[in-house]
Automatic annotation (TrEMBL):
Gene3D superfamilies: Oxidoreductase, molybdopterin-binding domain. InterPro entries: OxRdtase_Mopterin-bd_sf (IPR036374). SUPFAM superfamilies: Oxidoreductase molybdopterin-binding domain (SSF56524). This is Molybdopterin-binding oxidoreductase.
Amino acid sequence: MQDVCSHNIDTDGAALGSVVARLLSDLPDWVPLPPAFLDALGLVRLGGDVADSGLYSVGEFRALPATTEAATYLSGAGQITDTYTGVLLRDLLADAGGAVTDPAAKNDILSHYVIATGSDGYSAVFSIGELEQRFGNQPVLVAYADQAGQLGPDGTEGWLRMVVPGDVAGGRYVSHLVGLTVGGGPDFIAGPGGPTTEFHLDGAVAHPAGFDEAGLAALAGVTLTATYTSGAGQVTDTYTGVPLWDLLQDAGVLTDPAVKNDILDFYVVATGSDGYRVVFSMGELDPRFGNGGVLVAYDDALGQLGPDSQDGFARLVVPDDTAGGRYVSNLVSIEVVDAAGHKHDPVWG
């Protein structure tokens, strides 16, 4: 009898959320909705730089193509293993028409990100590059069901939560999910292009710095072999460089110690001499979470890099990506940005 009642609560709650979502479907983004209201009804507000913003109910999530993923992560209570069912975040964005991009900018989708927000205001950033199948291909989920009973009307994690199967710790598993905001890095500004001999690391850091080849070579280096697809076909090369995370650590990202996992609200913009730019979420780089292993390379076996080469003295290498869109060549800048200070909030307006 208890199982039947529980099923009815689940069904009735999800159905009410669907009705409310339909009633509020034409509500402008700037009109605030209380987080507790959204959480109680299992509603997520999708907004920002997306073609078709609006409210998604649990019922609407269930109507989209489902994916099931087993995940193990570290929490304050220790290691947790669970199996989740939900919608891939990239599929949800596609259902909403995708991020609004600049057709004049090459791979402009890679300059965009998504901020996931819980009912308590806790948030985390995901770069669209880490989600896209051609690039990072990470199966990040908006989950609505799980085997351990974390989710649902009586679940400790709310109706909906983010699930990030590749992450070590659970900081980006945003629970009681109520908001997804699509944002973009700086507007595309075409640059002169050509080989570079230095780049600068600045933005929300305590110690901005400039780097040339000698400066990078003086730091602790890593050598790795990467294979990726380019316009000319498949490329395999062996690179030597400095982990991007190490450079960011030395620069000192200006996080707020009063905000839990504040590092997850930041992203990095890497820009080449022609203006081409790519966004990485700090969460995908941090070894405690995505541990992405992105390298700032200054030497390679094939001779792509150097002061007179077409790729400049330094480029990013993203060893887990399928295509080379995030391999920013002729690097001129790496900027750290606090997304929490640059977002239109679709939950509170």
